[in-house]
């Protein structure tokens, strides 16, 4: 017997609700900062390939926070007859679109930068007149890029905690991108300084470095979204370690006196899990509906990330579902 889908939008515990609100606030702060940043960069970038790449990178930097905000909003919609599982996977779709956009534009920018280098195009950085004095535009570029090294780093560190609390891949990827942006900023500064020193190719090399950084961001976003959409085994954010929730479900079910063996298949929908739990009873003919309902509720209450559970009695477990007793004891000990 399996439990029917819950048919409602999951509610978050208070700590996770606060984390979601903080994530939304930080996403809006990021968008506001990038909006001002891209306008100023557009005005001062001149013909520098590195500054052009930095400008495009900051434009693309708006995509992940937008994906998080849109995904979280759509995920709150209630299930319908046409969408009985709800819209929780909208977060993965938004994450996928963000990754594809970053990968595509990063690839285009890399091609453009390489062609600029091969054609030996020399950038022309002019001068500004400030209070009647000629000021090399490169100094303004370097000064602005130095200032912009710090806000993304701070935003990335602030986003990391709510991302991990929510196990939200879109917010986590955005935080990682922000934390790594300082390297692209330093590459831009080096490229402009190279122009000032007469090293014309430094500008194109800096643009290539920034392009590769964008491609890497796109790849990480794309990989993170696809692992959910192809229903891979859930992993702890930022690691290759299995998420502890599936093991916790096994441990809870194994404590029931009528259960001899247990295993489950868990899939991600956004930041939530759907669990198909398989149990081998000691005496198959004596399992009651009430026991299955109690088992489902036991699993449902094991962790806030579990949105829906099906408990399915079987005669034996397949090889992929079997777990060791030591793993069950370890999971229960860590959840205590």
Automatic annotation (TrEMBL):
Positions of the Cation efflux protein transmembrane domain: 41-229
Main location: membrane
Entries under InterPro entries matching the protein: Cation_efflux_TM, Cation_efflux_TMD_sf, CDF_Transporter
Transmembrane regions listed in the UniProt entry: 22-44, 50-72, 93-115, 135-155, 182-202
Annotated localization: Membrane
Membrane topology recorded in Swiss-Prot or TrEMBL: Multi-pass membrane protein
Gene Ontology MF term list: monoatomic cation transmembrane transporter activity
UniProt keywords, alphabetically: Membrane, Transmembrane, Transmembrane helix, Transport
GO cellular-component term (any): membrane
UniProt name for this protein: Cation efflux protein transmembrane domain-containing protein
Species in which this protein is naturally found: Corynebacterium maris DSM 45190
